Amino acid sequence: MSLLSEFKAFAVKGNVVDMAVGIIIGAAFGKIVSSFVGDVIMPPLGILIGGVDFSDLAITLKAAEGDIPAVVLSYGKFIQTVIDFTIVAFAIFIGIKALNKLKREEAAAPEEPPAPTKDQELLGEIRDLLKAQQGR
Length: 136
Fold this sequence. Notes:
- The protein is built from four helices and two strands, in the order ααββαα.
- It has helices spanning 3-11, 14-48, 75-108, 118-134; strands at residues 59-62, 71-73.
- The protein has one domain: Orthogonal Bundle (Non-ribosomal Peptide Synthetase Peptidyl Carrier Protein, Chain A), CATH 1.10.1200.
- Helices cover 70% and strands 5% of the residues.
- β1 and β2 form a beta hairpin.
């Protein structure tokens, strides 16, 4: 098998396509969460803590000198990223919990026992005949 045909077989497998779709949807979901956190969650939270915007929180370690830019420790951006991560992780947790609940409900549904096969029916008849002969 040539290298090209092996690659084609690998690339068109369902798992690879599913993974690509998952990555694309994950990137779009990340943008939604970033907007939700930055535009919906952080403004009220900033008001609650006295109007502080997390992204502006920083400590200047060394002031700018001429052409050399200042050295700044932007811990507010880190706090923002941690909040983003926490919201994404919680959303994923809720989604997986819901999926697991659906799977448990499907598994809990009782299945009808399979109908006996012809062999099983014949063996049952033989058993019944033997019992009848022994009972005489």
